[in-house]
Specification:
There is one protein chain. The protein is an all-alpha fold. It has a domain of 86 residues. Helix content is 59%, strand content 0%. Helix 4 packs across helix 5. The relative contact order is 0.08.
């Protein structure tokens, strides 16, 4: 029975490096390139060593928190696009649902007769 090659293991410093790579948004393929392992080895190591998955998850969490903090800072400094974005994401202030085609269900139909009356009023002399 042959023993085969010993399984590759990451050191604690390498686990920290994986977390830092995850914190800057690196994908698995980018991380395995930096760590100098093949895709199949990376997959096996992730399945075998929970420290790798934990480091990736922690890094992604840290990135998300850092981005959210920056978004909030931009919004509170008056960035209108960021205020709109966060309003939609955090406060549910997204675009209104499209109006239904049926006039029976459209709440604006109650104002249509009045709008037609206003349209037919005589114009003032300064509007002509």
């Amino acid at each position: 029975m042959s023993a085969g090659r010993p399984q590759k293991e990451f050191t604690e410093d390498q686990i920290v490096q994986i977390q830092k790579l995850s914190e800057i948004g690196c994908s698995d393929s980018e991380m395995l390139g930096v760590m100098s392992v093949s895709k199949s080895t990376w997959i096996r190591m992730k399945a075998r060593d929970p420290r790798i998955v934990e480091a990736i998850e922690k890094g992604k969490g840290n990135l998300a928190v850092r981005l959210r903090r920056y978004q909030i800072e931009l919004a509170t400094s008056g960035s209108v696009p960021m205020l709109i974005h966060l309003g939609k994401c955090l406060l549910g202030q997204g675009n209104a649902a499209p109006m239904k085609e049926s006039s029976e269900e459209n709440p604006l139909t109650q104002f249509l007769p009045r709008a037609e009356t206003i349209k037919n009023l005589p114009r003032s002399p300064d509007e002509e």
